[in-house]
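I have been asked to look over a protein record a colleague put together. Alongside the sequence sits a line of tokens, each denoting a local backbone shape. I have pasted the whole thing underneath without changing anything:
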Amino acid sequence: IASVHIPPAVRELLHRSLGLPQNTSWALNCDNVHVLKDLARQTDVVLICTEQAMAEEVASGEFVQLRFADFRPWKIAAGIVSLKGRTPSPVAELLRDRLVAAAKSGA
């Protein structure tokens, strides 16, 4: 298994959800998705990351998405932080507005 950094509580939830032993080790834990993709291209590692990170590769058929029975998406907490006294960029404002709208809609 290779993945981006996963907090211990989420890793434990992942182990339980997938029926993996708690001592299942990760081959690599790295925040560089490009490194993880290259590793997956060269080995038989199972890569855990967001669907969005792999969208192009899955659409092209280079990678396949594994589906697990009884595996439901999790709700996550998201937030935005900024430096004190800084004006947010237009993209930051757009992201903030979309996160707020999604939180209000329950999405």
